[in-house]
């Protein structure tokens, strides 16, 4: 699987799964455009990709702002001459809360970034792809969007919306040579999880059928496959990367 001379936009590419995705795609030959709200982390990832022999550029964006998602596509085209693929990974979670005590501000913030931001990103990307012969998009969903998760009502609903939006776009643009898929990670050893105490990490790992958490790179590898021509007849799916967790009753 190669991405040689292809241009990929990665939202949320400054940390966690987004960073792993940006680096893996660069290793496989892609010219990577990272869009994120964190300037210092975005610049660091670009430096690390470049030091490893890859090609990358960073632009500061907030995916909840339409003009920023348009700017991301424009930056890719202006910097590298085209856009072929997009990995929409930007997103946030919220403090654990049940429905009755979830703060309204958190509900709005989660939906502005995790769902509206996904729609705005896709809108900008698809608009470009329609004029340039097609493309491939992978959206970051979550296992929480597939099954109810206690304490995460806004996040779970937003990610369920991402899954629905992915299927909608796949159907609408299938004959325009635009494929749209999603990935639904389970418990992944991201920086946020790494910051937990060792006992909590061990408890989480024990809940997994494989007895461990997944790595960001394992999720990135699935994103890369779905983006690539190797998955050329795959569109509209949500691919779980959860070590079998969804099979537990």
Automatic annotation (TrEMBL):
Pfam families: adh_short_C2 (PF13561)
Name of the protein in question: Short chain dehydrogenase
Family to which this protein belongs: Belongs to the short-chain dehydrogenases/reductases (SDR) family.
Gene3D superfamilies: NAD(P)-binding Rossmann-like Domain
Superkingdom, taxonomy of origin: Bacteria
GO MF, one example: oxidoreductase activity
Record keywords: Oxidoreductase
């Amino acid at each position: 699987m190669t991405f040689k001379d292809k241009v990929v936009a990665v939202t949320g590419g400054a940390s966690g799964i987004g960073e792993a995705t940006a680096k893996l795609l660069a290793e496989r030959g892609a010219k990577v455009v990272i869009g994120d709200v964190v300037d210092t982390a975005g610049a660091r990832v670009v430096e690390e990709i470049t030091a490893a022999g890859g090609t990358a550029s960073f632009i500061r964006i907030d995916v909840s702002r339409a003009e920023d998602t348009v700017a991301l596509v424009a930056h890719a085209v202006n910097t590298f001459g085209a856009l072929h693929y997009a990995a929409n990974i930007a997103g946030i979670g919220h403090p654990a809360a049940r429905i009755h005590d979830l703060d309204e501000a958190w509900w709005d913030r989660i939906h502005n970034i995790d769902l509206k931001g996904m729609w705005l990103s896709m809108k900008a990307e698809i608009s470009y792809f329609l004029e340039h012969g097609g493309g491939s998009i992978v959206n970051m969903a979550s296992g929480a969007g597939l099954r109810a998760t206690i304490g995460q009502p806004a996040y779970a609903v937003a990610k369920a919306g991402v899954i629905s939006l992915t299927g909608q776009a796949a159907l609408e643009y299938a004959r325009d040579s635009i494929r749209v898929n999603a990935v639904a990670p389970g418990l992944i050893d991201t920086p946020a999880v790494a910051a937990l105490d060792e006992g909590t990490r061990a408890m989480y790992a024990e809940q997994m059928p494989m007895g461990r958490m997944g790595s960001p790179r394992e999720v990135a590898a699935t994103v890369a496959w779905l983006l690539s021509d190797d998955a050329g007849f795959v569109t509209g799916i949500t691919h779980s990367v959860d070590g079998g967790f969804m099979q537990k009753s």
